[in-house]
Amino acid sequence: MDHVEYVYTTGMTESEVNDYLQAGEHGVLGLADDDDAYAIPLSYHYDGERLLLRVSQHDHESEKGRFLRTTDTATFVCYEASTDESWSIHVRGPIEEWSKNVDESTLNKWFQPFRLFDETVENVEFSLYELQIETVLGRKTVV
């Protein structure tokens, strides 16, 4: 492996992790059901204390909903990568539906526009899930 190119990375400070999470909008949520894994891209909101994920409500009856109910410890990954620079943050912890009501104006402020897939606007409602941050790991390219 003498001719493979490498890029060195380093850990992020707590402040850097906080800044990247607050600036980001989307990532991938990893869920599990026994030895079955499921990963989905989702929009998120991080306010410095809690990580909220927006999930369309019809998903309670879907595969996504089943995995949300059966996962004890979820992993959420947000990242950006190019040839020259990269960063990634892994957040792990229990996930549960967030019981507080949030109006549409707040949803629009907290999240980017929802991507519809085989749905009509009239049939879309959202639930928020909180990923309780037990561990967080951030890495970035050494420049």
CATH architecture: Roll
SS strand fraction: 35-45%
Structural class comes to alpha+beta
CATH top level is Mainly Beta
The biggest sheet amounts to: 9 strands, antiparallel
Determine Rg (CA atoms, Å).
Answer: 17 Å
**Large-scale geometry:** globular
The CATH homologous superfamily: Electron Transport, Fmn-binding Protein, Chain A
Q: Say what the CATH topology is.
A: Pnp Oxidase, Chain A
Spatial sequence of strands, sheet with the most strands = 1-9-6-5-2-3-4-8-7
Mean pLDDT: 91
The strand count comes to 9
Helices and strands in order:
Layout: E1 9-11, H1 14-23, E2 26-33, E3 36-46, E4 51-56, H2 63-70, E5 74-81, E6 86-93, E7 95-97, H3 104-110, E8 126-131, E9 135-141
Antiparallel strand pairs: 1-9, 2-3, 2-5, 3-4, 4-8, 5-6, 6-9, 7-8
What does it look like?
It is built from three helices and nine strands, in the order βαβββαβββαββ. The protein has a nine-stranded antiparallel beta sheet. It has one domain: Roll (Pnp Oxidase, Chain A). It starts with 8 loop residues before the first strand and ends with a strand. The protein has 143 residues and is an alpha+beta fold.
